[in-house]
Protein 1
Amino acid sequence: MRLLALGVDHRSAPATVREALAFGDDRLGAGLHALRDAFPGNEFVVLSTCNRVEVYAAGPAGDIPGVDALTAFLADFHGLNPETIAGHLVGYHDEAVVGHLFRVAASLESLVLGEGQILGQVREAYRAAVDRQGAGPVFHTVFQNALRVGKLVREKTGMDQGKLSVASVAVDLAREVFDTFADKTVLVIGAGKMGDLTLQHLKNLSPGRILIVNRNPERAQAAAEKWRGEPVPFDRLNQALIEADLVISTTAAAEPVVNYDQYVRVQRARRNRLALILDIAIPRDFDPRIGDLDQVTLYHVDDLRAQAEQNLSRRRKGVDPALLIIERETAACYAAVRQQQDAGALLRQLGDRADQIRRRELDHLFQNLPQLSDADREAIAHMAARLQNQFLHHPRAAVRSAAAEAAAAPEAPHPILSAVRHLFGLADPPAPSSLKKIT
Amino acid sequence: MDRLQILCFAGTYGLALAVELARLFVRSELRWHLGVGLTFLGWCVQTLYLANIAWSGRTPLPVTSAFESVMVLSWVVALIGLYLMVQWPRKVAVGFFTLPLVLGLILGAAWFVPRAAEGRDWEGATAFWGTVHGIFLLAGAVCASLAFAAGLMYLAQMRRLKSKQTRNFGFSLPSLEQSERVNRGAIVAAFPLLTAGLLIGALLSAVELRKGGGGPHAGVPWYDPKVLSAFGMWLVFAGLLHARFRPSMRGRTVMMLTIAAFAFLVFTWVGVEALRLPTAHGAPRTAGGPP
């Protein structure tokens, strides 16, 4: 049994190549069917996301497609020139395939370290392959383990903790201040690009009202239409501040738009309700002393950036422990796959050997007793087959049960498997193939 | 023997607290399950302990002494804490705040509060109203404990937000709004309960004083340290309720006042006995007794 992974990712190929090789939802089924038709007897899973397109293959050593064959297939399927894509494709063999998939599922190979989407994408890719009979026993084990390891790494290292963009840090902050948003009013002052992005994220919290204040009424109107908010004239800023619970300020004003004394009066009029102010403008729109007021949380864009950087550095600290987990789990998973394969091969060997002996003995008997009628011969052959099955029933059951146990603790070969080989005089399994990464 | 029994469930709560503290270093589903399991085990053992006290006493509710009341208070707080631990997302560090409170109440009661009952000799209507007095004060104390825990959570969260630090690994707190809401609701509920409990106690004492006689039926004079501290506590809670509804005092001020009010409540409840001040409340069975 061999494993192969071949594909492109955000490091090896530009977006144009990734797009050209992508298996969209409409083409994924066709792709899996085409792979099975082109390379029968193999298992396939196709992982296709914005940042990576990878084909995972597993099959008997003689049947599994090589890198060249799979490259030719990809080029043919997408109508591309093989030479155009060959330079961008990265491949892994055998145990390295398992390690690579585990790193992908744990988001160590992602463009944004620790992002959560990839685990769902791996799950979807596996599910699509199962639905189309692309995945078999090998990929059941490997992909189910990948999903488990992806979760485990996040759980143990906190790799998914803390957001990495200013806008998503702002959303996290809003959740730390407020519990519900349906009864909250969001006020946007100005119409900067960053403010737009932040509001786009905050919209997911479904705030009750959105007020838009801008010196330019047309711009306020346009933004209000875009975000389904209410435009408010700039001279009514104080009133809007009184009504607002969450403020995003993103003007290009050279001087602070809201000074300390002004906001003290606003906060008094707000009856000192909780307020979150996200001052995304440079220079600042809000006097920094406003953040000292009770019940007011004021974050400048630099604070949000600093938090995002802290989160990133925390995620980076998780990489080494994550790699250790992945290394351990890869070895265990690959050993489990091999144990399963060995058990399967042993069962086949056992059956073949018994068939061989039965057929030889039947031939010998029928040569010595030529007077036997066809009906007699058929009855004797049937009896011999039944005898063979009954004799082998318990050894087969023992091998299956030993294989299941060995998969759970794959460090050493299970003694039952060795004993069956020895007792029935069967050849030893082939030595494990060496690891290699091909590029 | 009694303290050994108390150590059994206090130790289990202590282990649960250690597991809860480990959330700063260990991220694991198992840690959460272990923390909840240990808290539940401690609560079950404490339930058996309180059931035994109730079984051996005359009243179905073991609230006839300061010791028993504090034990029941810690039991209710542990139950509420357990409920919140299970209800809220696993990463919210509820046990961080409720378990030290539970442990503090148990250990404080076990080591500093006299065990003797304060009304076991009462009969008829006096016994009934004495129990009602205890139940109202207990319910008020439960609300005050909740307000205290919510106040601590609010202050910790506000401090983190003001210092602009990212959330600690595996440690998050309820939102400011959530803590504020729990604090507000608990204060609003605590004040009338404490007021009713104190009023019933005062009326009961006045009736006993009018009846005259000595010993346990003598009643408690107004200048008794327990009565004075109870009145002081009521004033602090009245001030807290007032502050709660004054917009200018919302936030940090109210939370600090909540902590002070809770400290006053603990002092009123067990401080007088623990410091062995001369009190006729429950005399002459208090450990120190009148000097």
Protein 2
Amino acid sequence: MTIEIDIARDFSKKPFGRNELDGKYSGKRFRDEHLLPALTASDDEILTVNLDGVERGFGSSFLEEAFAGLLRQNIGYDTLKNRLRIMTSNRDYESEIWEYIDEQNERDSA
Amino acid sequence: MSQEIIILDFSSLEEISAAGAVALFARVTSAQISSGNDQLFQIIQPKKHNVRKQFRGSGLFNALRPGGRRKLDKLWDEKSKFLSGYDQEKHLDPTLDLIGDTLDDGTPNHLKEAINEAILNIQQHAYRDPANGLSSGLRRRWWQYCYLDRDSNRFIFVISDLGQSIPSSFSQSHRSHEELIAHAMKKGVSSTGDPWRGKGSQNIKDPVELEVSDKLIVISGNGLYVYNSSNIKEELAGLSYPYYGTLIAWSFDLLGGKNDNRN
């Protein structure tokens, strides 16, 4: 089974910033309202996140807080490796997200 | 009691840089707002016909003329090249649209992300100290300018705040201001101290990364930082006069042959 979240359709075409002080559609809100519920709803479903369709691109603050922030919310690194799939026509975003997740994991493991 | 008037005499002006114009726009309009005196400045225009034409045609005169917050709001309706915003939800899209219209081909994604993070930095950090004495109309406010020189095929976007400078947000007083800016522009460095923050500086550098004639300039406090690419050492210089705030300018050579592969 796969759960799919389409950011532009399900969240906003204009994601911006890290937390609620930055704006309505922050990385923290996306993480807390979409990613965390999807990951905790089951133990093994694949979560596919589609990044295409947003209008302004993604700032690093949004991507870091939304995805690497999952580890800071006690989602395990192995869970993300096994279950999170990023769909995007821009492979740079996918690399960037995994880079932030890996960096957070390294800090947690240190 | 009569109100003071400050005369800004541009009669001998020959030229003004984009960064200088934005700094002036920010200083003049912030003083107009904080004084509550729309008529605080009297402007004497350049004597030379061609300079005066550019002074007016660029929108600088209209941006500096007597007025307050309403004048700044109206600049957005007029699609001026000189603009001042205070809310990303209200002003980020028109900014990106304006750049897209100016460049004909739309706004490159790298530049969208850079402006996104620059505005985020202003919102998160520049006005963090509530005791900086700014009036309510100035907190979170930024000033910007975009310009396409069709003769030289150069596009410039400048954005500035008048908040806490980058050097003053770090407590390492033994380092020069330019060194502190260079430190802040490294990926993973954040004045918050959170190890997962400070990624936005890479977004700000990315647009100029691939083309040797593109440049990123950061002026803050007494420091000047010029970045071209990760393969070239950044240029650092101290400034005799401080800039009370932070000014960021991107300068692009549109004939540089660079392809933005994020489009």
